[in-house]
């Protein structure tokens, strides 16, 4: 695989993810290879050593996630990549990274589940797992590319958001996007900003690891090895990092984890609209299915039907306001996704009964085609 | 000349059809066009069904999968049965007659070429059947320029096999030369 030249070329989604990680300044990867994400590991095993980084193939997915957290605590930008079965195994440690506020990126190239399911079959069945896979109340940032170009750009963004908000960030591809090859034009260094975590401005003696110092509510993060000693625990803790069971401290901790993201939703939430202004039928689709939906919109418009598309780029936080606004003028909303009904429920919540919500749902390892979506449009109009 | 091509390769895992799809997409990029290549295959490394799809266009490409093929290449009886009905009326349909013996009720312009047998007998190794097939396909359709195809093949194949692969392309082209001239 040729990975050195950074100009217009044919590139695979997984490869673009790996190159995006390098662009964002990633210096550590730990993982356990799994179809259909393996190319990310394969390419980073070659690329990371070239830029002074480290690649470790761990004994399993649980250890991979633990190693990613450890590396990030020392100051490295760290990631792992997996598919459904591995995403399940990583959930406990993902929760640990959330409560300890450790920046990291987890790529999940979705295949048909549950369990081993269909290793080479495309699916979008992990999107609710991204939201609620680890236990307890927690905010989540999840990005979802629909092209190879976006695999690159959103991987950079995932690292930037992980660093900005001190939180794990998911980037979710379906198998089609991960394995698809497409023409891409990669940016020059510096063309996309690269964000680095805020470091403490005080000395080790007055550093409180979990005390926010400004309106971002994100505490500056010292790197282990820099002389700052602090406690990292999965127990609910106060600003010193030590565990607490005081209700007011527990509440404040959990609230801050939410507020540090929810107070900045305009900075986080991202989506794309196509022909939505006068749409009587609003489609919602993400990942590879959004490409089929985009084609269906064009075919429908050519046939004189007023159809538009909302494509969430952040699945979480979900762009519910945009959906609500579009639904207010619509006769029907159609959600197309490669599962038996997951994001459709989020759409129903956002629509608030303003229009009926229909699904084009499929979980048989086959992609959803523009023809199927168009047939549903004609059925509901 | 079409400005949007939907091209599908169907066969058996191990025949190199996904590689052929990648090479064709790379040749399109070399020609300055837009291209998307996708695939579908079983969990087996050899022997399961395998499908590669390439979309080539002068402008942007929405959907990355073939709905009705402009060009179809089939190299197994199963693929022929499954994909021959899903082509446009004026499609170019290339059938590897080494493995596909039965008549298929197909639309389009059908070309039966002994692709795998030619690879074995004329080039010396059946493993280059995918490259012979690309010679046939580009010879018939001119979907990419011949120079771009040669360049893309040489960039993708293992070192030391360049001459064999160049020969494979030529064998494919020669196999359909008479057909093109007649057409």
UniProtKB/TrEMBL annotation, chain A:
GO MF, one annotated term: oxidoreductase activity
Keyword set, alphabetical order: Oxidoreductase
Keyword Oxidoreductase: yes
Oxidoreductase in keyword set: yes
Entry-linked Pfam families: PFOR_II, POR_N
Superkingdom of the organism of origin: Bacteria
Residues of the Pyruvate flavodoxin/ferredoxin oxidoreductase pyrimidine binding domain: 19-250
Boundaries of every Pyruvate:ferredoxin oxidoreductase core domain copy: 279-373
Protein name: 2-oxoglutarate ferredoxin oxidoreductase subunit alpha
Native species: Heliophilum fasciatum
UniProtKB/TrEMBL annotation, chain B:
Gene Ontology MF: a single term: oxidoreductase activity, acting on the aldehyde or oxo group of donors, iron-sulfur protein as acceptor
Domain Pyruvate/ketoisovalerate oxidoreductase catalytic: 13-173
InterPro entries registered for this protein in UniProt: 2-oxoglutarate_synth_KorC (IPR052554), PorC_KorC (IPR011894), Pyrv/ketoisovalerate_OxRed_cat (IPR019752), Pyrv_flavodox_OxRed_cen (IPR002869)
Keywords: Oxidoreductase
Pfam families the UniProt entry points to: POR
PANTHER family registered for this protein in UniProt: 2-OXOGLUTARATE SYNTHASE SUBUNIT KORC
Protein name as annotated: 2-oxoglutarate ferredoxin oxidoreductase subunit gamma
Source organism phylogeny: Bacteria, Bacillati, Bacillota, Clostridia, Eubacteriales
